[in-house]
């Protein structure tokens, strides 16, 4: 399925972030993510959101380079040619990123890989679902006589909601509903294989979502991204709530003693020896910024949530950032709260009624406990390179996966196999 955790560091084939270099023995799927360009729609997603940004940075850097060159030649101020050249290269990269967004995104982003080899570039989205299902089924049958971990990261339900003809128009909830029904069918097929191979009583299966609905996603006048269910309220956090594989690591291997891991084993909960998991706090990050903290108060069973920052929705109270395309994590796109907004999720799951010291007797006690947890949490953190920095998110030709001779990247080996 979808990896979307990076691919290369220094060269096109070093694959430093590839699944096979991070604990997996086999990989089939998309190294990047699903975008509208993969389907060839008239509403390009990456181009629309990035073209203006790339072009703005290109203009700014170009102006800076010309200013430095003129200043250098006229002896207005001292500056090394090395600095000017580095800045010019940076400007060229932004220009190439802007240029490549016009029609090239499908070739650079929408690709399939088997292990370390690119097998489709661009991928045939009409056949991707069946190909991934076949791979998963084959993997189960191939490994049925030994313990295995199969991680299926579906392309459903993700915009542009690519749905095969068999499921189009089946749901009364439009294209989003069609896509959900197809996902349900895929999950059912995998469960059928587990049952037919007599693995039902020896296999642990769990289903999770890595984030909520993409509310800003739309096609013409219709919304594509669904909604976030009954928990829709006044406050939403741009953060992931994915289920981490390391929470299950104690099922197969002991935790390394020298590693500081904030996960907690779920094994006692799965065995029924305890009523609650070992997780007491959940920290909601948006990028590198801590936006909210959830606390499960074990003695009372109450779940509290404190918001330190919330998105500035556009339009107001819409629950989304339609004008920006995506809610930012910092700057004028967020509102910081001091004191934080506190909610009792046990009584107010939609987060519609923020509490205060006047309305909640435990307000100060809860906030002190959460502040202490944040302090302890930050002591465990170490500084790492920012993977979401502007430089790390611009297109770099020398890191682009390619089947063939770059930039003439094109192959459809999956069709040949079929």
Overview of this structure, please?
This protein has helices at residues 45-73, 81-100, 105-109, 125-142, 174-196, 267-271, 363-379, 413-417, and strands at residues 28-29, 112-114, 117-121, 218-219, 222-223, 281-286, 289-297, 302-311, 334-344, 404-405, 408-409, 411-412. Helices cover 29% and strands 13% of the residues. The strands form four sheets. The chain has a four-stranded antiparallel β-sheet. Strands 6-7-8-9 form a four-stranded antiparallel β-sheet, with helices on one face. β4 (218-219) and β5 form a beta hairpin. By secondary structure, the protein is an alpha+beta fold. α1 (45-73) packs antiparallel against α2 (81-100). It has eight helices and twelve strands. Belongs to the sulfatase family. It comes from Neopipo cinnamomea. Keywords: Calcium, Hydrolase, Membrane, Metal-binding, Transmembrane, Transmembrane helix. One of its GO terms (molecular function) is arylsulfatase activity.
Helix/strand layout:
Blueprint lengths: L27 E2 L15 H29 L7 H20 L4 H5 L2 E3 L2 E5 L3 H18 L31 H23 L21 E2 L2 E2 L43 H5 L9 E6 L2 E9 L4 E10 L22 E11 L18 H17 L24 E2 L2 E2 L1 E2 H5 L1
Antiparallel strand pairs: 1-2, 2-3, 3-12, 4-5, 6-7, 7-8, 8-9, 10-11
Helix pairs in contact: 1-2, 4-5
């Amino acid at each position: 399925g979808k990896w979307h955790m990076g691919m290369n560091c220094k060269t096109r084939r070093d694959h430093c972030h590839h699944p096979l270099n991070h604990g997996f023995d086999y990989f089939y799927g998309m190294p990047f993510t699903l975008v509208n360009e993969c389907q060839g729609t008239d509403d390009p997603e990456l181009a629309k959101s990035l073209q203006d940004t790339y072009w703005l940075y290109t203009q700014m850097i170009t102006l800076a380079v010309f200013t430095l060159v003129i200043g250098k030649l006229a002896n207005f101020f001292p500056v090394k040619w090395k600095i000017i050249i580095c800045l010019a290269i940076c400007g060229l990269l932004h220009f190439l990123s802007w240029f490549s967004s016009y029609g090239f995104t499908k070739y650079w982003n929408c690709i399939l890989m088997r292990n370390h080899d690119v097998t489709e570039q661009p991928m045939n989205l009409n056949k991707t679902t069946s190909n991934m299902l076949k791979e998963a089924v084959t993997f189960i049958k191939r490994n049925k006589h030994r313990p295995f971990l199969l991680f299926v990261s579906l392309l459903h339900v993700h915009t542009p909601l690519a749905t095969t003809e068999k499921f189009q128009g089946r749901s009364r909830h439009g294209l989003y509903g069609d896509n959900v029904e197809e996902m349900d069918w895929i999950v059912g097929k995998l469960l059928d294989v587990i049952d037919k191979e007599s693995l039902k009583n020896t296999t642990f299966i769990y289903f999770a979502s890595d984030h909520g609905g993409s509310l800003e996603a739309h096609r013409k006048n219709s919304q594509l991204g669904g909604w976030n269910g009954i928990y829709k309220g006044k406050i939403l956090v741009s953060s992931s709530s994915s289920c981490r594989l390391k929470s299950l690591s104690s099922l197969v291997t002991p935790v390394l003693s020298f590693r500081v891991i904030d996960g907690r084993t779920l094994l006692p909960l799965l065995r029924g020896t305890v009523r609650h998991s070992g997780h007491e706090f959940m920290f909601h990050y948006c990028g590198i910024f801590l936006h909210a903290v959830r606390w499960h108060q074990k003695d009372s069973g109450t779940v509290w949530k404190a918001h330190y920052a919330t998105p500035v929705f556009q339009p107001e109270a819409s629950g989304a950032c339609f004008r920006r395309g995506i809610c930012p994590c910092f700057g004028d796109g967020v509102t910081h709260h001091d004191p934080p907004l506190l909610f009792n999720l046990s009584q107010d799951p939609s987060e519609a009624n923020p509490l205060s010291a006047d309305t909640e007797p435990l307000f100060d006690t809860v906030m002190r406990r959460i502040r202490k947890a944040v302090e302890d949490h930050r002591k465990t953190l170490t500084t790492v390179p920012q993977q979401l920095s502007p430089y790390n998110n611009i297109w770099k030709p020398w890191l682009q996966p390619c089947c063939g001779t770059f930039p003439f990247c094109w192959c459809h080996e999956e069709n040949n196999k079929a």
